[in-house]
Amino acid sequence: MSQVFIVTDSTADIPDELVAKYQIHVVPLRVVFDQETYLDGIELSPATFYEKLGKAKVLPTTSQPSPVEFMNVYSQILNDHPGSQIVSIHLSSGMSGTYQSALLGKSMLEDEQTAEITVIDSKSASYGYGLLVVHAAQLAQAGKDAEEIEAAVLKLHEQRKLYFLVDTLEYLQKGGRIGKASAVLGTLLNIKPVLSIDNEGIIYAVEKIRGQKKAMERIIQMFEQDFAGKRINIAVGHTANPASAETFISLIQTRFELGEVVYPNIGAVIGSHVGFGTIAIFVWPA
Fold first, then answer.
1. Who has greater pLDDT, 120 or 169?
2. What is the DSSP string of 146-193?
Protein backbone atom coordinates (compact mmCIF):
# COMPACT_ATOMS: atom_id res chain seq x y z
CA MET A 1 0.00 0.00 0.00
CA SER A 2 1.36 3.43 -0.94
CA GLN A 3 2.17 5.99 1.71
CA VAL A 4 -0.15 9.01 2.01
CA PHE A 5 1.14 12.51 2.79
CA ILE A 6 -1.10 15.28 4.12
CA VAL A 7 -0.82 18.87 2.88
CA THR A 8 -2.69 21.89 4.20
CA ASP A 9 -2.23 25.65 4.52
CA SER A 10 -1.45 27.89 7.46
CA THR A 11 -5.06 28.97 8.07
CA ALA A 12 -5.78 25.53 9.58
CA ASP A 13 -4.14 26.91 12.77
CA ILE A 14 -2.79 23.49 13.76
CA PRO A 15 -0.51 23.61 16.83
CA ASP A 16 3.15 23.14 15.92
CA GLU A 17 3.48 19.99 18.01
CA LEU A 18 0.71 18.27 16.04
CA VAL A 19 2.21 19.39 12.71
CA ALA A 20 5.51 17.79 13.74
CA LYS A 21 3.96 14.65 15.27
CA TYR A 22 1.91 13.83 12.18
CA GLN A 23 4.39 15.17 9.58
CA ILE A 24 1.87 17.55 8.03
CA HIS A 25 3.07 19.76 5.17
CA VAL A 26 1.86 23.34 5.69
CA VAL A 27 1.88 25.87 2.83
CA PRO A 28 1.85 29.42 4.28
CA LEU A 29 -0.40 32.28 3.25
CA ARG A 30 0.95 35.83 3.41
CA VAL A 31 0.15 38.78 5.64
CA VAL A 32 0.98 42.34 4.59
CA PHE A 33 1.63 45.05 7.21
CA ASP A 34 2.48 48.51 5.83
CA GLN A 35 3.80 47.01 2.57
CA GLU A 36 5.95 44.46 4.46
CA THR A 37 5.03 40.88 3.60
CA TYR A 38 5.32 37.97 6.06
CA LEU A 39 4.79 34.23 5.68
CA ASP A 40 2.04 33.22 8.09
CA GLY A 41 3.36 31.02 10.90
CA ILE A 42 6.94 31.14 9.58
CA GLU A 43 7.98 34.78 9.61
CA LEU A 44 5.08 35.92 11.77
CA SER A 45 4.00 34.06 14.91
CA PRO A 46 0.55 34.64 16.41
CA ALA A 47 2.02 36.51 19.40
CA THR A 48 4.07 38.83 17.18
CA PHE A 49 1.12 39.36 14.85
CA TYR A 50 -1.25 40.53 17.59
CA GLU A 51 1.45 42.81 19.00
CA LYS A 52 1.84 44.41 15.56
CA LEU A 53 -1.94 44.54 15.05
CA GLY A 54 -2.32 46.55 18.23
CA LYS A 55 0.06 49.20 16.87
CA ALA A 56 -1.09 49.20 13.24
CA LYS A 57 -2.76 52.30 11.83
CA VAL A 58 -4.01 50.35 8.82
CA LEU A 59 -5.44 46.83 9.02
CA PRO A 60 -3.25 44.13 7.45
CA THR A 61 -4.19 42.37 4.25
CA THR A 62 -3.70 38.72 3.33
CA SER A 63 -2.98 36.75 0.18
CA GLN A 64 -3.12 33.10 -0.82
CA PRO A 65 -0.19 30.93 -1.96
CA SER A 66 0.42 30.80 -5.70
CA PRO A 67 -0.31 27.65 -7.73
CA VAL A 68 3.45 27.30 -8.25
CA GLU A 69 4.00 27.03 -4.49
CA PHE A 70 1.53 24.16 -4.29
CA MET A 71 3.01 22.53 -7.38
CA ASN A 72 6.47 22.65 -5.81
CA VAL A 73 5.26 21.04 -2.57
CA TYR A 74 3.40 18.28 -4.41
CA SER A 75 6.29 17.66 -6.77
CA GLN A 76 8.82 17.47 -3.93
CA ILE A 77 6.76 14.91 -2.02
CA LEU A 78 6.13 12.71 -5.07
CA ASN A 79 9.75 12.89 -6.20
CA ASP A 80 11.06 12.04 -2.74
CA HIS A 81 8.51 9.26 -2.23
CA PRO A 82 7.74 7.58 -5.58
CA GLY A 83 4.38 5.83 -5.64
CA SER A 84 2.99 7.84 -2.71
CA GLN A 85 -0.33 9.69 -2.56
CA ILE A 86 -1.24 13.20 -1.35
CA VAL A 87 -4.39 14.45 0.35
CA SER A 88 -4.44 18.26 0.36
CA ILE A 89 -7.06 19.99 2.55
CA HIS A 90 -7.61 23.75 2.47
CA LEU A 91 -9.42 26.86 3.66
CA SER A 92 -13.00 27.27 2.44
CA SER A 93 -13.29 28.36 -1.18
CA GLY A 94 -16.05 30.67 0.05
CA MET A 95 -13.45 32.72 1.93
CA SER A 96 -10.27 32.46 -0.11
CA GLY A 97 -8.80 31.39 -3.43
CA THR A 98 -6.37 29.04 -1.65
CA TYR A 99 -8.29 25.90 -2.63
CA GLN A 100 -8.33 27.04 -6.27
CA SER A 101 -4.57 27.66 -6.14
CA ALA A 102 -4.06 24.13 -4.86
CA LEU A 103 -6.14 22.74 -7.73
CA LEU A 104 -4.16 24.78 -10.25
CA GLY A 105 -0.91 23.64 -8.66
CA LYS A 106 -2.03 20.04 -9.08
CA SER A 107 -2.96 20.66 -12.74
CA MET A 108 0.55 21.95 -13.48
CA LEU A 109 2.06 18.53 -12.78
CA GLU A 110 2.33 15.61 -15.15
CA ASP A 111 -0.73 13.39 -15.58
CA GLU A 112 0.70 10.44 -13.67
CA GLN A 113 1.42 12.70 -10.71
CA THR A 114 -1.94 14.48 -10.62
CA ALA A 115 -3.68 11.11 -10.35
CA GLU A 116 -2.06 10.69 -6.94
CA ILE A 117 -3.28 14.02 -5.49
CA THR A 118 -6.67 14.58 -3.86
CA VAL A 119 -7.53 18.25 -3.14
CA ILE A 120 -10.37 18.89 -0.68
CA ASP A 121 -12.29 22.12 -0.07
CA SER A 122 -12.81 22.06 3.71
CA LYS A 123 -15.65 24.61 3.54
CA SER A 124 -14.36 25.77 6.90
CA ALA A 125 -11.63 27.85 8.54
CA SER A 126 -9.08 27.71 11.33
CA TYR A 127 -9.19 24.55 13.44
CA GLY A 128 -12.68 23.93 12.07
CA TYR A 129 -10.77 22.13 9.35
CA GLY A 130 -7.46 21.84 11.17
CA LEU A 131 -9.04 19.02 13.12
CA LEU A 132 -9.93 17.35 9.80
CA VAL A 133 -6.31 17.66 8.69
CA VAL A 134 -5.04 16.12 11.92
CA HIS A 135 -7.55 13.26 11.60
CA ALA A 136 -6.38 12.70 8.01
CA ALA A 137 -2.76 12.61 9.15
CA GLN A 138 -3.57 10.12 11.91
CA LEU A 139 -5.25 7.85 9.36
CA ALA A 140 -2.30 8.22 6.99
CA GLN A 141 0.07 7.08 9.74
CA ALA A 142 -2.28 4.15 10.38
CA GLY A 143 -1.84 3.05 6.76
CA LYS A 144 -5.15 4.16 5.23
CA ASP A 145 -5.19 5.06 1.54
CA ALA A 146 -6.26 8.40 0.04
CA GLU A 147 -9.78 7.25 -0.78
CA GLU A 148 -10.38 6.02 2.77
CA ILE A 149 -8.95 9.23 4.21
CA GLU A 150 -11.12 11.45 2.03
CA ALA A 151 -14.25 9.55 3.06
CA ALA A 152 -13.32 9.80 6.74
CA VAL A 153 -12.61 13.53 6.45
CA LEU A 154 -15.98 14.21 4.83
CA LYS A 155 -17.74 12.15 7.52
CA LEU A 156 -16.01 14.04 10.34
CA HIS A 157 -16.86 17.33 8.64
CA GLU A 158 -20.54 16.44 9.00
CA GLN A 159 -20.14 15.45 12.65
CA ARG A 160 -18.15 18.37 14.03
CA LYS A 161 -19.75 21.62 15.15
CA LEU A 162 -18.18 25.05 15.46
CA TYR A 163 -19.09 28.47 16.79
CA PHE A 164 -17.08 31.58 17.39
CA LEU A 165 -17.38 34.90 19.14
CA VAL A 166 -15.58 38.07 18.12
CA ASP A 167 -14.94 41.05 20.37
CA THR A 168 -15.72 43.44 17.51
CA LEU A 169 -17.22 42.99 14.05
CA GLU A 170 -14.94 45.72 12.66
CA TYR A 171 -12.42 43.32 11.14
CA LEU A 172 -15.00 41.05 9.51
CA GLN A 173 -16.83 44.07 8.11
CA LYS A 174 -13.70 45.71 6.67
CA GLY A 175 -12.63 42.41 5.17
CA GLY A 176 -16.00 42.02 3.47
CA ARG A 177 -16.96 38.95 5.50
CA ILE A 178 -20.01 40.51 7.17
CA GLY A 179 -22.30 43.44 6.40
CA LYS A 180 -21.57 46.97 7.61
CA ALA A 181 -24.99 47.31 9.25
CA SER A 182 -24.39 44.21 11.38
CA ALA A 183 -21.00 45.54 12.42
CA VAL A 184 -22.44 48.87 13.54
CA LEU A 185 -25.31 47.19 15.42
CA GLY A 186 -22.92 44.93 17.31
CA THR A 187 -20.69 47.82 18.32
CA LEU A 188 -23.50 50.07 19.55
CA LEU A 189 -25.45 47.54 21.56
CA ASN A 190 -22.67 45.27 22.87
CA ILE A 191 -24.28 42.48 20.88
CA LYS A 192 -22.13 39.36 20.68
CA PRO A 193 -23.30 37.45 17.63
CA VAL A 194 -22.69 33.73 17.81
CA LEU A 195 -21.13 33.07 14.42
CA SER A 196 -20.62 29.85 12.51
CA ILE A 197 -19.81 28.64 8.99
CA ASP A 198 -22.51 27.18 6.75
CA ASN A 199 -22.31 24.17 4.41
CA GLU A 200 -20.97 26.39 1.63
CA GLY A 201 -18.13 27.65 3.80
CA ILE A 202 -19.60 31.12 4.41
CA ILE A 203 -19.71 32.91 7.78
CA TYR A 204 -23.18 33.60 9.15
CA ALA A 205 -24.74 34.76 12.43
CA VAL A 206 -26.50 31.97 14.35
CA GLU A 207 -27.89 34.21 17.08
CA LYS A 208 -27.30 37.70 18.47
CA ILE A 209 -26.84 37.82 22.24
CA ARG A 210 -26.04 40.69 24.57
CA GLY A 211 -22.83 40.00 26.50
CA GLN A 212 -20.08 37.41 26.12
CA LYS A 213 -20.94 35.31 29.18
CA LYS A 214 -24.50 34.76 27.92
CA ALA A 215 -23.16 33.98 24.45
CA MET A 216 -20.83 31.32 25.87
CA GLU A 217 -23.72 29.76 27.78
CA ARG A 218 -25.85 29.67 24.63
CA ILE A 219 -23.06 27.92 22.70
CA ILE A 220 -22.84 25.24 25.39
CA GLN A 221 -26.62 24.77 25.19
CA MET A 222 -26.35 24.21 21.43
CA PHE A 223 -23.58 21.66 21.94
CA GLU A 224 -25.84 19.89 24.44
CA GLN A 225 -28.49 19.59 21.74
CA ASP A 226 -25.99 18.15 19.25
CA PHE A 227 -23.96 15.89 21.56
CA ALA A 228 -26.36 15.00 24.39
CA GLY A 229 -24.93 12.23 26.58
CA LYS A 230 -21.82 11.86 24.43
CA ARG A 231 -18.13 12.19 25.22
CA ILE A 232 -16.61 14.96 23.10
CA ASN A 233 -13.30 16.26 21.85
CA ILE A 234 -12.92 20.04 21.94
CA ALA A 235 -10.59 22.68 20.60
CA VAL A 236 -10.82 26.29 21.75
CA GLY A 237 -8.98 28.72 19.51
CA HIS A 238 -7.87 32.06 20.88
CA THR A 239 -6.08 35.21 19.71
CA ALA A 240 -2.86 34.73 21.71
CA ASN A 241 -4.93 34.72 24.92
CA PRO A 242 -4.97 31.22 26.47
CA ALA A 243 -6.90 32.47 29.51
CA SER A 244 -10.01 33.06 27.39
CA ALA A 245 -9.86 29.47 26.15
CA GLU A 246 -9.45 28.14 29.69
CA THR A 247 -12.54 30.07 30.77
CA PHE A 248 -14.67 28.29 28.19
CA ILE A 249 -13.17 24.88 29.00
CA SER A 250 -13.94 25.38 32.69
CA LEU A 251 -17.58 26.05 31.76
CA ILE A 252 -18.09 23.16 29.36
CA GLN A 253 -16.32 20.48 31.38
CA THR A 254 -19.07 20.71 34.02
CA ARG A 255 -21.57 19.57 31.36
CA PHE A 256 -19.56 17.10 29.23
CA GLU A 257 -17.01 14.38 29.59
CA LEU A 258 -14.06 15.65 27.58
CA GLY A 259 -11.68 13.54 25.53
CA GLU A 260 -9.03 15.39 23.55
CA VAL A 261 -8.57 19.08 24.41
CA VAL A 262 -6.65 21.32 21.98
CA TYR A 263 -5.75 25.00 22.31
CA PRO A 264 -4.99 26.35 18.82
CA ASN A 265 -3.64 29.85 18.42
CA ILE A 266 -5.70 31.71 15.82
CA GLY A 267 -2.93 32.69 13.42
CA ALA A 268 -2.15 35.87 11.54
CA VAL A 269 -4.31 35.29 8.46
CA ILE A 270 -7.51 34.37 10.31
CA GLY A 271 -6.63 36.94 12.97
CA SER A 272 -6.51 39.66 10.31
CA HIS A 273 -10.19 39.03 9.64
CA VAL A 274 -11.49 38.50 13.19
CA GLY A 275 -9.22 40.71 15.35
CA PHE A 276 -8.52 40.64 19.08
CA GLY A 277 -10.68 38.88 21.64
CA THR A 278 -11.94 36.12 19.37
CA ILE A 279 -12.83 32.72 20.79
CA ALA A 280 -13.50 29.84 18.39
CA ILE A 281 -14.95 26.58 19.69
CA PHE A 282 -14.77 23.32 17.75
CA VAL A 283 -16.39 20.11 18.99
CA TRP A 284 -16.42 16.61 17.52
CA PRO A 285 -17.27 13.13 18.85
CA ALA A 286 -14.63 11.46 20.99
1. 120
2. HHHHHHHHHHHHHH-EEEEE-S-SHHHHHTTSS-HHHHHHHHHHTEEE
